[in-house]
Prior knowledge:
321 residues; alpha+beta; 2,3-Dihydroxybiphenyl 1,2-Dioxygenase, domain 1; eight-stranded mixed beta sheet; 5 helices; globular
Amino acid sequence: MTAISGYHHLTMSTDGAQEDFDFFTKDLGLYSVKRTVLFDGVLPVYHLYYGAKNGDESTIITTFPFRKPGIFGRRGTNQSKIVQQAIPVGASDFWVNRLGERGITATKSNRFGIDRVDFRHPCGIELQLVENPADNRAPIVNAAQGIGAEHAIKGIYGGVVAVTDRNAMDDFLTIALPLKKMADDAEGMAYEVPNPGGPNAVVEVVEIKDEAQGTWTLSGGTIHHFALNTGTEENQLKLRAHIEGLGFTDISEQKDRNYFKSCYVRSPGGALFELAWTVPEGWAKDEPADAIGSTLVFPPWFDDRREEIIAGLEPASFQDA
């Protein structure tokens, strides 16, 4: 069965809200797509969305800027390790130079025969810009930030998951989701995320046995989850039933995220995946379609807590130009 059509978004738990916003909108040239708050629990935490100006799903990176005293995540194995975005072929040198000029250490590398740029978010999470020759999406041009079409990020390429048991992860990815294995060698494993007629996207896996278990809780400096796009509710629920029927019972009921509906499943090692589909109104559910990401918005069920949450949020200036 194939109920997946590319990525929906990738989500990180970062640190300061201001440094996070400036990093994605100014350093990387993405646009603010939605500014809201964490829908789960009671802590006042931003939930920030970045991507293409129109909010195309396959471009969305979201963050929980989680600057809380004494609470910081532990990066390790059995955890999502790297967030990857696609760039045009030949754009690596531009990004190494641009990031370096902005005080961000960046180096070039090659894995599975594909060139990439390695660097880190200010909170320490590993990121890569990957030269994807199969990506036919329009680049996210940002003239105000000096990023033209020949170099601009195109959207999500994928993510890297660290595991202690590559065989268990292989079963989960190929049987439960299911994805097609593209590579399996000393460098690790790579799996193609189905996306008919669209850009090539992947999940990459590395086996790391000599590190401690990474944090699973919501805490700064860690990747929270990778979300795959099921396109429709029917596909989502069919895939959920398929995964649960295989015995992967650590899977949630459907959750309302206002702009999309989600189910979450934890892989055998612990990395969290989401199955998501966008509701018809999408990002324009609570903002004009031509002004998404310009205001702080709340879901209807937080109407009675709005002032309380605002009072607890970290002060920040969200100006992306």
